[in-house]
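dumping this here so i dont lose it
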């Protein structure tokens, strides 16, 4: 178990702004296939599929690009990395944290050339969050590396995932075991439930609750049923408090 003092555990809750998702909660914002969120006003997790749309959403939500201190990429798929080039054109030199090995199969190596690339084979503290370390799996016959981020706040320990290709139950259980003794709070993000039927999704949600997560908020690749069965229906423009 990691020591409780090893990364920030503020007395106040943390905010997560949903910047990119398949659906919006405000008609003035752009949606698209993919995911991106901003944690604590400064840590960007994934960049969606389209940079111009993500930048427009930032402006519409009155978030300055200058406030972003680092980018964490969950996995090297276009719908989570597509906005990175636009962001780095505007903010060259930003630190970009990748799962170990993702640099070799990254879809836009030119974009990475404008960043300070840092690999995360193991859990790594990045400001107010910590990466899970790299999970490796096979996806459609190819090797896939993925990481999530852990957020500690006054409300408990939460997990944010991009797509959860290695399996949402596997990732969720690993985090729960690593932070044994913590109160688990929210599990937020893409959970790759889109190809499951209602009974399978409901069973998965129940298992996540049994692990200890009090609130499940499914986005992106979780499918319409996953969103419907979530404890909160989210989309671009939403602000979630952890």
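and the seq i came up w/
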């Amino acid at each position: 178990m990691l020591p409780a003092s090893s990364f920030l555990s503020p007395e106040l809750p943390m905010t997560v702004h949903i910047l990119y998702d398949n659906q919006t909660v405000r008609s003035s914002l752009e949606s698209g296939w993919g995911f991106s969120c901003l944690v604590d006003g400064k840590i960007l997790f994934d960049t969606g599929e389209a940079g111009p749309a993500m930048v427009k959403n930032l402006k519409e939500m009155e978030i300055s690009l200058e406030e972003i201190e680092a980018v964490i990429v969950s996995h090297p798929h276009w719908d989570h990395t597509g906005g990175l080039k636009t962001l780095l054109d505007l903010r060259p030199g930003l630190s970009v944290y990748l799962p170990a090995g993702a640099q070799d199969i990254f879809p836009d190596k030119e974009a990475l050339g404008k960043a300070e690339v840092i690999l995360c084979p193991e859990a790594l503290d990045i400001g107010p969050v910590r990466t899970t370390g790299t999970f490796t799996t096979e996806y459609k016959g190819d090797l896939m590396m993925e990481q999530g981020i852990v957020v500690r706040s006054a409300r408990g320990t939460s997990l944010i995932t991009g797509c959860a290709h290695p399996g949402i139950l596997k990732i969720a259980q690993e985090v729960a075991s690593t932070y044994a003794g913590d109160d688990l709070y929210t599990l937020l993000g893409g959970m790759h439930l889109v190809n499951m039927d209602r009974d399978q999704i409901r069973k998965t949600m129940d298992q996540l609750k049994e692990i200890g997560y009090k609130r499940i908020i499914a986005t992106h690749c979780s499918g319409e049923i996953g969103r419907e069965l979530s404890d909160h229906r989210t989309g671009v423009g939403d602000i979630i408090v952890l």
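The chain has a mean pLDDT of 94.
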